[in-house]
Amino acid sequence: MKLMNLKRVGNQTVVFENPPVILSSYSVVGPKEGQGPLGKTFSKIWQDNTNGNKSWEVAESKMLEEAMQGAVSQAKVKADELDFMLAGDLLNQIISANFAARTLGFPFIGIYGACSTMALSMAMGSMLIDGQFARNVLVGVSSHHDTAERQYRSPTEQGSQRAMSAQWTVTGAGSLVLAQTGVGPRITAATIGRVLDYGEKNVNNMGAAMAPAVADTILNHMKDLNRTPGDYDLIASGDLGQVGIQLAKEVLKRSGVETANQFQDCGVMIYDPSQDVHAGGSGCACSSVVFAGEIMQKLISKQYQRVLLVGSGALHSPTSALQGESIPGVGHAVVIEA
Amino acid sequence: MFQQIIPAFIVGGLICVIGQLLMDLTKPAFTPAHVLVTFVTGGAILGALGLYGPLVKFAGAGASVPLSGFGYMLSKGAIEAVGKRGLLGAFSGGVEAGAVGIAAAVFFGYLVSITFNPKG
Amino acid sequence: MPGQNLRPPNLNITPQEYHNLTMSMTPKPNVIRNSWRAFLVGGLICAIGQVMINLLTMAGLERIEAATAATAILILLGALLTGLGVYDEIGKFAGAGSIVPVTGFSNSIVAPALEFKREGYVMGVGARLFTVAGPVLVYGIATSIAVGIIYYLLHF
Known about the structure:
Distance between the termini of chain C: 60 Å
Distance between the termini of chain B: 38 Å
Radius of gyration of chain C: 23 Å
Order of helices and strands of chain B: HHHHHHH
Order of helices and strands of chain C: HHHHHHHH
Shape of chain C: extended
Radius of gyration of chain B: 16 Å
Largest sheet of chain C: none
Helix content of chain B: over 70%
Oligomer: heterotrimer
Largest sheet of chain B: none
Number of strands of chain C: 0
């Protein structure tokens, strides 16, 4: 059977024939993120991490709802024209996304990519639109510092010291509406990453666990499209942190891909060192809110012409870590052009 | 009121330094829970070998307040109970000696947990 | 990656080389500074305990009773400071200086119970009180029983 019009190029990349438009973006964050260097780029800043909800888990789900509703109303898309909702988060069974989907009511595809969920959802949403399976797709992710701490690490009132390589889970939710037609930046290509594990077992050093996978995705992406980092105004990894991005740069350099100042990390961008976050921000929302705010704004103003967003995910669980397993990583990339 | 306070401060501080070195220099999987278990077991064993008792005499709270002191109390209690009750004492002695500490931990822990809320 | 034949292009680094690279690029804890802080705070908590024992002895308690009562008071203090949201701030600074004293034991009991209160009073608070206290009691009591049995066998 011969397949016609294959949009796949190289190893792992797809190029969109009719690049989907990002009609709108909306971000909701907690106070710590609001006090950071990107504070002015977020759509909404909560006064505290609970916002009157009875638990942090409920708060996170409400945050995701708020971000998604914000994106939908800004896109001026009618509810019955929104064909799919793609969402995910860090919690067991992705309950934040599930409960947000319950409120919003769109046909729902739950996605888990750990902290790379945003980039992965953008890629999948674009495939649905370019494949003519959808007119408009709603994409969104959330994370919350306190829900992540109690699931992955220790109770929040426990007096333990965090390692210098540890990262701070971003409390926030970011959402986009992707469409077949319209005005706005476009997603032109996507590279789906493969899972790599270079043996890092330290859950306090996620950056080191994810860096090889992110580097591998960037390497394959460049090879697939016959490009170099110089073809991009910005290559933004999701949450490698201070340690991870240095490792990724070095690994890429040894593999023949030279990156310079255009390679930055959302986890490093979102907080100021004075906020005592050690290696930087992490979580699904990290890449999501930085993209939905700062990066989208620079794409719309044409300051950036072409951006590569590489979500980074650590695909372990508290159980696998307790059993002494190392941490597999993955990186998913999407190209967005102004 | 300030009797023995200097030995208590110094010995207590040094025992905590041992804990800090354990946390900083071992594999990242060594959590606070592992530290606590190590200290209570260590204190119980050192107490059994007769090495912890003199430390308590010298440093007072400096040896009894760290969790190794709790372990010492448990094994000392077991040894004394064996002397009085024989083999059954091996089972009853530790728990009896630690009874006040355990009860206080459960009771105050529960009270505080239901009164306050975590702040994140 | 060991044992994998992944489709090229692949990263030009072996797992061992990557491990070495990670070690060189990951910031190490400042052991001297952390130990000094642990010493100060741990010593201070023990000194406070000693003052309590002295006061209780002056009030008429036997030495052993005073030590036990002081321990109970410190347990309460650790629990209170945890409930007030202060103990984790102390812990960030003091590390083992706040974990090793019995106040740290108290903190490790209250912190998970507080956290999981939203899951109810039985399976939330009740069950989680012993998340960390459990192992401490298991190993402490088991060791004391082993010690007792060995003592019995050696002397009787």
